[in-house]
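Blackboard transcription, Thursday session:
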Amino acid sequence: MTKPQNSLSKRDEIIEVASKLFYEQGYHCTGIQQIIQEAGAAKGTFYSHFKSKEELGIAWLKARHATWNHWLLQFINPKKTPKSKIVGIFDFLGQWMQDANFRGCAFLNTMCETPDCENALRLEISNHKRELFELFRALTAEHHATKTKIEQEQIATTLFILFEGTLIQLQNFQDLSFLQVAKKQVTALL
Amino acid sequence: MTKPQNSLSKRDEIIEVASKLFYEQGYHCTGIQQIIQEAGAAKGTFYSHFKSKEELGIAWLKARHATWNHWLLQFINPKKTPKSKIVGIFDFLGQWMQDANFRGCAFLNTMCETPDCENALRLEISNHKRELFELFRALTAEHHATKTKIEQEQIATTLFILFEGTLIQLQNFQDLSFLQVAKKQVTALL
Amino acid sequence: MTKPQNSLSKRDEIIEVASKLFYEQGYHCTGIQQIIQEAGAAKGTFYSHFKSKEELGIAWLKARHATWNHWLLQFINPKKTPKSKIVGIFDFLGQWMQDANFRGCAFLNTMCETPDCENALRLEISNHKRELFELFRALTAEHHATKTKIEQEQIATTLFILFEGTLIQLQNFQDLSFLQVAKKQVTALL
Amino acid sequence: MTKPQNSLSKRDEIIEVASKLFYEQGYHCTGIQQIIQEAGAAKGTFYSHFKSKEELGIAWLKARHATWNHWLLQFINPKKTPKSKIVGIFDFLGQWMQDANFRGCAFLNTMCETPDCENALRLEISNHKRELFELFRALTAEHHATKTKIEQEQIATTLFILFEGTLIQLQNFQDLSFLQVAKKQVTALL
DNA sequence: AATGAATGAGCCTTCATTCAT
DNA sequence: CATGAATGAAGGCTCATTCAT
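(Written on the board underneath:)
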């Protein structure tokens, strides 16, 4: 007897449930108990797969990183020019936040509840944001190919900051007008 | 016999200790027990002053709002022009984050660990940010007095977004170069 | 309303129950859960009185030390001479072990399950045994007043070793003949 | 293909690791998990060799009995006379305790954490001690060949008690002077 | 002979809150 | 205005054991 193809392993089920709960309720406000209960697993099963809650948290953020990047790239890859891709990132932001009920970014949320910079979760968080930053850098370099490295860096960083600032205030106010303003500023930079 | 002037009431002592701990450790990760212990108060004393942890949280954010605004205004009020005041807000941001060991903004941090938008803490948070936003609006209106309301709004919002985006990435990366980029963009807008 | 005189405080009830269970089942094999359940207390109540299981363990050993010493002194104080007191200690040993179902000595038992010599419980244990040793020393000095300090020390130590060795083998074999042999040797030393 | 001679079977590896851990940490404080992890075995492997933790405990004590007896006999067999062998047993005690960091006797330790006299582990323990007792009996009979059986028994038992009492107090106080006293008393008995 | 996922009771401890004094 | 004992659910984690492969 082989497992049915569409059945997840217990480990994956746990990660899936945890992803939902960590995002919706926050990392610290979500207990292992709730996770395993909703995943239909036993305590021992959980700890045979993850040596601690933190390890699950890391698995969650790694998975989230992959998923989120996939969403974003699927959204912007159809665009032809680097410029439209950059603008597309901000369009994606609006779409994403609406779909997510303005819960914000799993990575920023977790950073905010994790003061210790040396914490392993923080490493995943900064990696995630660094990769987004790199995307802005790459697209900016392509779009502003004639400008100097320094000018490119200034613009890419500004785009990244605008993205993050808009994101956090969409979460705060659930008001999409922030996005309109940001997009206007973005086009001004391109 | 009146209390000596320099002695805080138990209530104020509790708020003071809570402010430190909520900010440093996060709201949810800080327990009432630790607060009253460090404040030298009894359980019952705490609950005679605050009907719940949330009420203390609100008192904290209200006090924090006043304190933070005071810091900011003391920093920018000596500046003469609205332009230098706006730039001053970003200088303040750098100073503040360094002093705070890059722990970020108490309000954003608490928002990130509080998913429910209807939560009473969230009201204090949006009030705080709205007031900062208003400050950008007022200073922009003064500086760009000749521009239209719509143009002013665009610029003020952009400044606010830049502030928030820089703040959150200073917290994430502890790298002040984000601030340099933001300031360059700010001056470009003025 | 004052408490009835014969009612123990929750704290004392916990210690009393713990004393029974720690002795009968061993320190590590007895859980806080069982203790509070049998004492009719809540988890939180326990931890408002003791900051950890270890602290309860120490309270237990301190109380046990007092109780056991009281038992012993009540048994040997009626005896007139130091010699009969020393022999009395060994009579007490037999009585005690029979009453205790040959469960042995709470202090030795706990020492054996606590490898770390720096452990706080180990301090209580060595204090307890040191005091018993002192008793042998004092009674020996009185009985053998004409002998040298060195000779006295040799005899007192031997008596202490005989006591401990007999105790542990009574526990092991539940065979009182060890005690008869020890007593014969004891009298030979006096 | 046969296994290389110097490779232990999984079963023996498990026993070897368990021996170390049970002795150092105590029987109840050592979990199956740690044992199999340090032995590089799987859960199922463990339970295919031992039907329970207790069975491993028994295997451990049986192996320990053989090992310890081997140590002791190797130490005293070179001695020529029964008297020097008896004294040698006490010299061995000092050597052993120093090598073992004064962790005491695996058998006594396990007895102390195992209240139930009917427990299978307790059988191994009393067997071990009985055999040591027999050794004292045999050597005493040889040395005091002219004395009566009853006198021999009295002396052998005293020697055994002295050994056990010294052992337990070496463990308690890590103070070798107990051993000096015991040896003086031993020689007085021979 | 060996694997390792799965179980669920139990470990020690902290949580926010209530209440009699 | 203050005290601190009492509550019981929940926190993260380990336990010895089973079983399908």
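Lecturer's comment: The two ends of chain C are 58 Å apart (CA to CA).
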